[in-house]
Amino acid sequence: MPDRAAIVTGASTGIGNALAEMLGSEGYALTVNSRRAEKLEPAVEALRAKGYEVEAVAGSVADEEVVKEVVARHRERFGRLDVLVNNAGVGAGQAIGELSTKMLDLQLGANFRHIPLFYRETLDLLEAAAAEHKNALVINTSSISGKRGEAWLSVYSATKHAVVGFTEAMNKELGERYIKSTALCPAFVDTPMTDFLAGQVSTDQMVQTSDIVALVRPLLNLSPGCTVPELIFEQTGFKIGQAM
Questions:
Q1: What is the mean pLDDT of residues 47-68?
Q2: Is pLDDT larger for residue 199 or for residue 119?
Q3: Most Cβ neighbours (<10 Å): which of 21, 101, 217, 232?
Q4: Quick count: other Cβ atoms within 10 Å of Cβ 207?
Q5: What is the Cα–Cα distance from 234 to 219, expressed in whole angstroms?
Q6: Which fold has domain 5-184+209-231?
Q7: Three-state SS at 90
Q8: What are the pLDDT digits (tens) for 188-209?
Q9: Which residues pair with 158 in a beta bridge?
Q10: Sequence spans of domains, the chain
Q11: Which residues form a coiled coil (predicted)?
């Protein structure tokens, strides 16, 4: 059994990949997930090339059976869980008068539904880690849209608000057991997910994945009595409405 282990969803690119890389560099064995195997495989190869111990499970976490498989594979290989990163999600916008039920259901499943399921399926592992070192950690990726609603991104904003609210609830429910939860609320991050902004917002106006890593890394070593419920990453001198 490794000394520390983590699960990271949405780990093929962007924030999830950056956090997986950081956790690997900190000595964590990793189980990583992404929806598409063809995107996950090269990311896993790059992590393994750096000497990190990695288990990979492809599939959409909007499917409950995929959630269960990720946890089962992690449990079988590593036997412990110190950090859970619920990062998987999709960004999509539609005007409310044009909203399709398919798009609504996709975002509810991909952006929120899997998060409570991962807590449920990993709770015993998180409790065991917390009993050992009093700093079990869950990172839930929300968005700045989870702090203020945005036109056209109404459903996305609603799911990300749900992530923030659920994170707050988990701290109240599990905090006494030293299972700490942090919601990440970034503005536009320079990742493939923001490629649609090409020509509207330059990448140097965006939050970088290195910024996310720089503030998440210290959470791994907080004292037992300290919880950081959310981290907000604003763009310097820039308002989202300027780009939409």
A1: 98
A2: 119
A3: 21
A4: 20
A5: 19
A6: Rossmann fold (3.40.50)
A7: coil
A8: 786 665 545 455 565 677 899 9
A9: none
A10: 5-184+209-231
A11: none
Distance CA(4)–CA(83), nearest Å, equals 8
**Of how many residues is the chain composed?**
244
Tokens coding 106: 């996709």
Q: Report whether 6 contacts 29 (CB < 8 A).
A: yes
DSSP state of 232: E
- Both tokens of residue 72? 């089962």
Q: What is the mean pLDDT of residues 133-143?
A: 98
What distance in Å separates the CA atoms of residue 174 and residue 177, rounded to the nearest whole number? Answer: 5
Order of all β-strands in the sheet with 179-186: 54-58, 29-34, 5-8, 83-86, 136-141, 179-186, 230-233
pTM attached to this predicted model: 0.93
Can you tell me the distance from the alpha carbon of 178 to that of 152, in angstroms, rounded to the nearest whole number?
38
**Residue 58: which H helix or E strand, with range?**
strand 54-58
Residue type, 18: A
Q: How far apart are CA 34 and CA 68, in angstroms?
A: 14
